[in-house]
Amino acid sequence: MDCIIIEDQPPAQRILKRFSEDIGTLNLKGTFSDAIQAMTFLRNNKIDLIFLDIHLPKLSGIDFLKTIQNPPHVILTTAFAEYALESYEFNVVDYLLKPFSFERFVKAISRVPAEKQETKDTTGQNKSSLFSDVIFLKSGYEHFKITIDDIIYIQSDADYTEVFLKNKKYLSTETLQHWIELLNPNQFIRVHKSFIINATKIQKIVASKVYLTDGKEIPIGRTYKDGFIKRFIR
């Protein structure tokens, strides 16, 4: 996707540039310190996505949205949460509250409607963006690309979580609540205060335990049992 950044703070500009480069499927066409400069650019250039700060000199991000017709998709970036409700009146894709992580940035990109994420391969066939299928998991100082469907379960352990795949696991400093908010609730289900499971990896359910494809037995907590049983047992 072709994108631009409208942000007046150099540190925030650098973060957005770096994150855009790290993803690899965004083509950054320009960075602007105020909305007036960006308006001039948009008159002559077609853009798929704008990263837009709300607090800008001369013209605020919200006022900028009011002035442009048929705007590209917009992801708002701001340090002030109180503008979230007003911003969604303009059908923005997402609202990134500074400071935000790389993983949260990727999640925002994944919310861009599919028609803007489609590309063509060498045969001319449409291919949807990979961002609905992968996440970038931060472990230490590294970000590992993980295919979401490969996750079998996630376990909370004190101040961190462990993400289990078929033949490996990753240690993450994110909380279990973070994963609940990030992953598709139709596929990933909390069955215990310490466990989220991938429903597609369920092998069998016996009493108060779920058996997964890797052989792991996961307990079903009392708080979650009724909802889980109603969903899967007919």
CATH-defined topology of the largest domain: Rossmann fold
Number of helices: 8
Query: What is the succession of H and E elements?
Result: EHEHEHEHEHHEEEEEEEHEEEEEH
Number of domains: 2
Helix content: 25-40%
Large-scale geometry: elongated
The order of strands across the largest sheet is 2-1-3-4-5
Largest sheet: 5 strands, parallel
The assigned structural class equals alpha/beta
- Under CATH at level 1, the class of the largest domain stands as Alpha Beta
Rg from Cα: 21 Å
**Content of β-strand:** 25-35%
Please sum up the structure shown:
With about 230 residues, the protein is of the alpha/beta class. The protein contains 8 helices and 17 strands. Helix content is about 30%, strand content about 35%.
Verbal overview:
By secondary structure, this protein is α/β, with parallel strands linked by helices. It folds into two domains: 2-119, 3-Layer(aba) Sandwich (Rossmann fold), CATH 3.40.50; 135-232, LytTr DNA-binding domain (OB fold (Dihydrolipoamide Acetyltransferase, E2P), Beta Barrel), CATH 2.40.50. Helix content is 28%, strand content 33%. It contains eight helices and 17 strands. It has helices at 10-23, 35-44, 61-67, 84-87, 102-110, 114-117, 176-182, 222-232, and strands spanning 2-6, 27-32, 49-53, 73-78, 94-97, 119-120, 126-127, 134-139, 142-147, 153-157, 160-164, 169-172, 188-192, 195-198, 202-206, 209-212, 217-219. It has a five-stranded parallel beta sheet. Helix 4 links the parallel strand 4 (73-78) and strand 5. The protein is elongated. It starts with a strand and ends with a helix. Mean pLDDT is 83; it is low at 116-132.
